[in-house]
Design a protein that fits this description.
By secondary structure, the protein is α+β, with helices and mostly antiparallel strands. It has a domain of 121 residues: Jelly Rolls (Sandwich), CATH 2.60.120.10. The protein contains 2 helices and 11 strands; from the N terminus they run αβββββββββββα. Bound molecules: fe (ii) ion. The site of fe (ii) ion has 5 residues, from loops.
């Protein structure tokens, strides 16, 4: 998903509390449990509808709930929105689409990505092994995402012009965005060169 630093989001101050969200088991949730949980959350628009925002040339999303076992976000999508390839480190996740439709794609070595459209009323779950990218299929789409254990780190992938894929560990609060452009690869190489030079100096 695409996140900017929480303080710069359009997050409203009235995020749901534990009393407003479906019951939780007090431990990490399994994938089916996560899916059932987001399905139930989808039926409680009073807990998230007021946080939906679109337009203004920026992504809109809101932290709905977070405790030591689950992390829940509301994501608003337009067709220009694209997370880029990423994983969720050690977290499993579930997504319920509540308005419009979103695109989900999985990378495939030596072939075109596996892509699908997930429409409102549908949901899916995935494990820590899942690599995907998501985007809006219809302007004005909305989805609810839950992760367990809570997101802390994520993997963001860049693909160079030669097709080589690299993973960069990012904070869950960093913005996810496409990293396929050469500038990202060049920046990565410069950072690696600087780190190598520093290590060589320390060894000297
Ligand atoms: Fe994701």
């Amino acid at each position: 998903m695409t996140l900017t630093a929480p303080d710069s989001t359009t997050r409203a101050s009235s995020a749901p509390t534990a009393a407003d969200v479906p019951a939780l088991p007090g431990r990490d949730l399994t994938r089916p449990e996560l899916k059932a949980w987001v399905d139930e959350m989808a039926t409680r628009p009073e807990a998230w509808r007021h946080l939906v925002r679109h337009g203004g040339g920026q992504r809109h999303f809101a932290s709905l709930y977070r405790d030591s076992h689950i992390d829940v976000w509301l994501l608003c999508w337009d067709t220009t929105d694209d997370t880029g390839w990423h994983d969720h480190d050690i977290s499993s996740g579930a997504v319920a689409v509540v308005e419009g439709a979103v695109n989900e794609a999985n990378p495939r070595m030596g072939g075109e990505p596996v892509s699908r459209v997930v429409e409102a009323g549908r949901s899916f779950h995935f494990g820590p092994d899942h690599i995907h990218r998501m985007g809006g299929h219809i302007d004005g789409s909305v989805s609810i995402h839950a992760y367990s254990p809570p997101l802390w780190r994520m993997g963001q992938y860049s693909i160079g012009s030669n097709g080589v894929m690299r993973r960069q560990s990012v904070s869950y609060a960093d913005e996810l965005r496409p990293m396929d452009d050469v500038s990202v690869i060049e920046q990565y190489r410069e950072e690696q060169a600087a780190a190598d030079a520093l290590a060589a100096r320390d060894r000297a």
